[in-house]
C-alpha cells in the first residue's frame, strides 16, 4: 500500500486579491496539480471578482479566473499554509505584522532575487501582460 503525501498548502497574497494573487494562485494550482492546494487572499477586501483585464490576460495564457472571489487574509489563513508568498515587500511586511514574530509558517516574496511583482492596477493592458508573464515564469520556484 502506497502512502500518499498530502498536498503542499500555498497561500498567495497581494494588496487586494484582485490582480496578482488570483492569477498566481491559478497558475500554481494548474501547474502543481495534486501536489499543491493553493489559495489567494488580499490585505484589503473590496472587490467582487478578479480584475477584468487580468481575467482577459489569464484567458489568453490558458488560465481561468472567472470563478475567483476575493478573500481577505487572516492569521488563520496564514496558519493554514505551509508557504505564504507575498507579491511585494510591502505585503510581506504587513503579513509579518499580522501574524507576529512567533508565526512558524514560511513566508517569502513570490519572485526570487528579492524582487517585487509590480501591481498593474490602474495601469495599461501591457502592464497586466507583463505582470502575468512574471508570475507565470516565477511559478516553477515554488513547485517540486
Features:
5 helices, single chain, Rossmann fold
Q: Can you offer a commentary on this structure?
A:
- This protein is an alpha/beta fold and 144 residues long.
- It has one domain (8-142): Response regulator (Rossmann fold, 3-Layer(aba) Sandwich).
- The chain is 38% helix and 15% strand.
- It contains 5 helices and 4 strands; from the N terminus they run βαβααβαβα.
- It has helices at 20-32, 52-61, 75-80, 89-99, 125-138; strands at residues 8-14, 36-42, 83-86, 106-109.
- Strands 2-1-3-4 form a 4-stranded parallel β-sheet, sandwiched between helices.
- Helix 1 (20-32) packs parallel to helix 5.
- The protein is globular, with a radius of gyration of 14 Å.
- The model has no long low-confidence stretch (mean pLDDT 94).
Question: Brief description of this entry?
Answer:
The protein has 144 residues and is of the alpha/beta class. It has helices at residues 20-32, 52-61, 75-80, 89-99, 125-138, and strands spanning 8-14, 36-42, 83-86, 106-109.
SSE pattern: EHEHHEHEH
Number of helices: 5
| Oligomerization category of the chains in this entry | single chain
Q: What is the highest CATH level, the class?
A: Alpha Beta
CATH superfamily: Response regulator
Describe the main β-sheet briefly: 4 strands, parallel
Secondary structure: number of strands:
4
Enter the CATH topology name. Rossmann fold
What structural class should be given to the helix and strand makeup?
A: alpha/beta
**Spatial ordering of strands, largest sheet:** 2-1-3-4
How many individual domains? 1
- How far from one another are the termini? 23 Å
User: What is the overall silhouette?
Assistant: globular
